[in-house]
Write a structure and sequence with these properties.
about 100 residues; alpha+beta; 3-stranded antiparallel beta sheet; two-stranded antiparallel ribbon; 3 helices; 5 strands
Length: about 100
């Protein structure tokens, strides 16, 4: 189980990553680590929500609405996915302006 993300955090894409659409997935290249990552269309849609404009809470609500699943059932898999992208340096955490 991955740590629960603070719902007020704002996530942004790393400037070290380049993403390209493939036929039915997205190829993400991390320049600093020289790693390639494949994202499904659904994973890319979640990644695209992390644009510096939304808090984790906003992303949770959007994923819940898009999937038709409850906030509680979406929370853990979303945390796992986002924490994985943060750990790999694909997403960065910004502190919200309060």
């Amino acid at each position: 189980m991955s740590p629960t993300l603070d719902l007020n955090l704002i996530l942004v894409p790393s400037k070290q990553c380049t993403i390209r659409k493939q036929v039915d997935q997205y190829l993400l290249y991390h320049q600093q680590t020289d790693e390639l990552h494949l994202l499904t269309v659904a994973a890319y849609q979640v990644y695209a929500l992390c644009n510096g404009q939304r808090r984790v809470d906003d992303i949770l609500v959007a994923v819940s609405q898009a999937s038709g699943d409850s906030l509680d059932s979406v929370r853990e898999p979303l945390d796992t996915f986002l924490n994985g992208l943060i750990k790999r340096g694909i997403l960065a955490v910004e502190k919200p302006n309060v």
